[in-house]
Every structure is written in structure tokens, then in C-alpha cells.
Design a protein that fits this description.
Blueprint: H1 3-7, E1 13-16, E2 20-22, H2 23-37, H3 46-60, H4 65-73, H5 78-88, H6 99-118, E3 123-128, H7 134-146, E4 155-161, H8 164-172, E5 174-175, H9 177-180, E6 191-193, E7 200-202, H10 204-208, E8 210-214, E9 227-232, H11 241-254, E10 255-263, E11 274-276, E12 281-284
């Protein structure tokens, strides 16, 4: 085959819509997403990429995914790279999702962690990939259910996410009545109606326990202390196996002895430092002396 014939070959088309998404465009987008967040996309996700990013092309007045790739890869594309990441990141969450984890946390608090905090020791929980806040607020409600004076103790919940847009929504603490229906009836008093805007706001005692911070799990982590509990659910599922293994190892390094890691229903922790402690629940093994 001649050089002319090779260079004139049409690009493989993955999605033929308002904007043509070629395999080349998809691979460029996938590579940038992987570099920025660790998220790995196969070509089977091309329809999802198209549906999420076609809106960005319209908003920017662009006519092709080729032009969009050039924008996000360019020196002036940082803002749009962040917008692309936000568009492609799935933020499905709800209050007390996977309730068995909160039952397990409640038992941990009742049998060990609440007494530790009451004695004046620090108690730290990390919600990694907190999305719009339902998870860390569910953790805070669970803590307050066992330890009503947690706000007066050294008890803190760190909630992090890579997307500043969902963090802004989380910090506001405003939710619809439909979202609040997932909260157990005994805890719904922790949300107060907002008459002028509709919906409900998480009460101040719950919000005071939670600190929201922007964090990319692939970057260096600025936190220095150990955590008693880490929630990282339905996040690692988007990573390649090697990236998952590195994440589990880093969590092990940041957990206190016999600390607990909760993961998503489709995720499994294959790290010898952890032992299963229930459904998608793992405990850091005691360090050998």
C-alpha cells in the first residue's frame, strides 16, 4: 500500500451524530482523562462520552470533536479539561446508600470508636469521592446517633472529590424532599425545610462535623494523620487493576491499626494487608510486632 493510500484512509467512526466522534478523538479524550484522574475508558464507553461532551461542544460553539480535543490539549485548555472531567465523572449517590455499611459503622462506634472519642482521642473518617455530600452527611448522622456530643470532641469527617462543582453543592447542604426520603425516619429531623427555596437543609450540627476539600486521588495526599474509617465506594471501579491496587495500598498506609475500609458493591480489595470484615467491608490487619 502506498503512503498516499495509507494517509487517505478514513478515520474509524465510533458515533455518527450531530458531531462525528472518531476513534482517534475518543482515544485522545480517554488518554487525557486517564492522565488527569486515573479513570480508564474503553471504546464501549464511546456513546457515553458523546452524550456527555456533545453538550460541551454546543456550549463552546465548536463544530467537531477534533476541535474540542485540540482545545483541551492546548495550553489554554485547563478550564475546559476540568469541565470535561466533571462531565464524564458519574455522580450517582444517595443518603445511606448500601445501608449495611452504616450498620457496620454504627457497630464500630458502639463497640470501640465512640469510647475512643469520648476519652479525648481523635476520631477521623474520610469520605473519598464524596460527590454531592450524601455520603459524608450520612456518616455524620450515624456518628451523632451514637455520640450526640461529637461536635464537642475531636471528631472530624473529611469529604473529598475531584469535581469542584459537586463539592459546592455538597457544602450548601440543600437536598430535595425526594432525596431525603432515603434517610431513616429516626434521622430525618437532621434536615430542616427551606421554605423560601423549597427542599431541605442538613442541620448545622451535622454540617459542622464535615470538611469538604477538592482532591484528586491520583495526586499526593496532603493529610498527615491516620484515619479510623475510609469510605471509597464506586470509585475504584473506573480504574485499571494496577491503579486499584495502588489505591488500596495507599489507603492501607493511611488507616490506623484495625481501621476499616468500605468499598462499592462491585469492588473487591485484593491487598494482603486487609481482611474481609463483611460485605465489601475490609479491616486493616494488626501489624506484626
Amino acid at each position: 500500500m502506498t503512503l498516499a493510500a495509507r494517509t487517505s484512509r478514513p478515520k474509524a467512526l465510533l458515533v455518527d451524530g450531530e458531531f462525528a466522534l472518531t476513534e482517534e478523538d475518543f482515544l485522545r479524550i480517554s488518554r487525557i482523562l486517564h492522565e488527569d484522574s486515573g479513570i480508564y475508558l474503553t471504546t464501549g464507553k464511546a456513546p457515553l462520552v458523546y452524550s456527555r461532551l456533545a453538550k460541551r461542544l454546543r456550549s463552546l460553539g465548536l463544530s467537531s470533536f477534533g476541535d474540542y480535543c485540540a482545545l483541551v490539549a492546548g495550553s489554554d485548555g485547563l478550564g475546559e479539561r476540568q469541565a470535561m472531567l466533571a462531565a464524564l465523572t458519574t455522580n450517582v449517590t444517595r443518603f445511606f446508600r448500601e445501608p449495611h455499611h452504616f450498620d457496620h459503622l454504627r457497630n464500630l462506634l458502639s463497640h470501640r470508636l465512640a469510647a475512643k472519642a469520648a476519652s479525648g482521642a481523635r476520631l477521623r473518617v474520610w469520605s473519598a469521592g464524596c460527590s454531592t455530600g450524601e455520603e459524608p452527611y450520612s456518616i455524620a448522622m450515624t456518628v451523632l446517633g451514637i455520640l450526640p456530643n461529637a461536635g464537642d470532641l475531636d471528631v472530624r469527617i473529611l469529604a473529598t472529590d475531584i469535581d469542584p462543582n459537586v463539592l459546592a453543592a455538597a457544602q450548601a447542604g440543600l437536598y430535595s424532599t425526594e432525596a431525603a426520603a432515603q434517610i431513616p425516619p429516626a434521622m430525618r429531623a437532621r434536615l430542616a425545610p427551606i421554605s423560601e427555596r423549597g427542599g431541605l437543609r442538613v442541620d448545622q450540627a451535622v454540617r459542622n462535623l464535615v470538611a469538604f476539600r477538592e482532591l484528586n486521588l491520583m495526586d499526593e495526599w496532603p493529610m498527615k494523620g491516620k484515619f479510623d474509617v475510609i469510605f471509597c465506594r464506586n470509585v475504584a471501579i473506573y480504574f485499571e487493576e494496577a491503579t486499584q491496587a495502588r489505591l488500596w495500598s495507599r489507603f492501607a498506609d493511611r488507616l490506623a491499626e484495625e481501621g476499616t475500609l468500605y468499598v462499592g458493591h462491585s469492588e473487591r480489595v485484593n491487598d494482603s494487608r486487609f481482611a474481609s470484615d463483611g460485605m465489601t467491608t475490609y479491616q486493616l490487619k494488626k501489624r506484626s510486632t
